Amino acid sequence: MSIDLHDASPDPGARCPLCEDMRQHRLVEEIPNRVLREILAADWGIRIPEAIALRNAPEAACRLLECSSCGLRFFARAKAGDAGYYGALSVAAKYYTPTRWEFGWVKRRLQPGASILDVGCGPGKFLSEIAAVASRAVGLETNASVVEDACRNGLEVYLGELGTFAPENAGKFDVACAFHVLEHVEAPVAFLRSLASCVRPGGTVYLSVPNRERSEKAPVEPLDCPPHHLHRWGSEQLRVVGRISGIPLREIAFEPVDIRVPRDRLRAAVTRSLGRIPFAGDFFSLWTGRFLWRLILSPPLWKLYCRRGILERMGYFGHSVLAAFSCPE
Predict the structure, then answer these.
(1) φ and ψ at 322, to 5 degrees?
(2) Do 198 and 294 share a domain, yes or no?
(3) Which of 135, 147, 247, 303 could form a disulfide with 113 if both were Cys (CB 3.0 to 4.6 A apart)?
(4) DSSP 3-state helix, strand, coil percentages of the chain (rounded to 5)?
(5) Dihedral sign (CA 8, 185, 241, 209)
(6) Both 206 and 287 in a single domain?
(7) For the chain, first and last CA: distance in Å?
(8) Strand pairing of 199-210 and 173-179?
(9) Which residue range(s) make up the domain with 306?
(10) What is the pLDDT along the chain (329 residues), one digit of tens a residue?
(11) What distances in angstroms separate CA 152 from CA 133, 146, 156, 157, one per listed residue?
(12) Do 267 and 195 fall within a single domain?
């Protein structure tokens, strides 16, 4: 589907939700909300009722800006979707991801007997995965029907907002997590501070977001736009949110890219180079491409690339980027 992007100057007076800079920010793109709804219906089978769609995205288009100070990409004047909007999304079977790469990454770093808080836990997949490790695994979720399902499955999940939950649960947990939540909130710094307040001194906060530098993404992704996602993050912006919040960043980790991505790019490069050979170009490019990717991307080398961060240095990124923050002693 072609997208009609309009020439427009950056939104005057737009405030960056991360660093609060109000200088003129660079306009990255402008996407008609009509197009987002059409793709959501065609690709996801989700049709947002018109009244809900207009209430949550009343303007004709959403405008993606890049902050001139911290580099965060954010949608000008965007507001988080309301309960009606998320209720319409949650009926799609594939809306809640069964598992995520970061679930395993964090689980391997948990101390046995730790108490864990998962904010925005959805149906509680992560809570289920860590049940044998944690002394207590608590979820917080804003979708009432999802909370009911999680509780029926024996999980300790509460309905509510972090801003209300945090003051009543200050310092009660060893670890707090929020997987793919930060990009939904209007005030990310306040969110991180509230999340960290639930953790004892010396504990850990884990945040993951969709990596805007990921190698696989469609030209337009409706769920990466308002009122679903309000901003787009890279590793540098995770460093910034920790610095502004006063919560030291300890580690950044990247989800490994799917092997299909470098494999297909290698094949395409070989085809471009050898395909020009008269008569035999197609034959040579086919077999040379297969030989090279099986050699260069063999399982032992692939594990080495992932372990040493070589793929990221080459510009290959998976879907998520994760940050671990240490709560001050």
Answers:
(1) -125, 140
(2) no
(3) 135
(4) 40, 20, 40
(5) negative
(6) no
(7) 52
(8) parallel
(9) 260-313
(10) 334 444 444 566 789 999 999 888 999 999 999 999 999 999 888 888 999 999 999 999 999 999 999 999 999 999 999 988 988 887 776 777 778 999 999 999 999 999 999 999 999 999 999 999 999 999 999 999 899 999 999 999 999 999 999 999 999 999 999 999 999 999 999 999 999 999 999 999 999 999 999 999 999 999 999 999 999 999 999 999 999 999 999 999 999 999 888 888 877 776 666 555 555 556 556 556 666 767 787 888 878 888 888 889 888 999 999 999 999 88
(11) 21, 10, 10, 10
(12) no
In a domain, 177, yes or no: yes
- Whether 239 contacts 252, CB under 8 Å: yes
Stated as kind and residue range, the H or E segment containing 295 is helix 281-296
Quote the CA–CA distance of 95 and 210 in Å, as a whole number: 15
Tell if the pTM clears 0.90, that is, is over it: no
Q: Are residues 159 and 287 in the same domain?
A: no
**Tokens coding 173:** 């947990």
Residue 46 inside a domain? The answer is no
What sign has the CA pseudo-torsion 18, 19, 20, 26? negative
How far out from the chain centre does Cα 181 lie?
Answer: 7
Judge whether 138 lies within some domain. Answer: yes
Within this chain, do residues 226 and 272 fall inside the same structural domain, yes or no?
A: no
What total number of domains does the chain contain?
Answer: 2
Neighbours of 210 (CB within 10 A): 20
Residues 280 and 222 in one domain: no
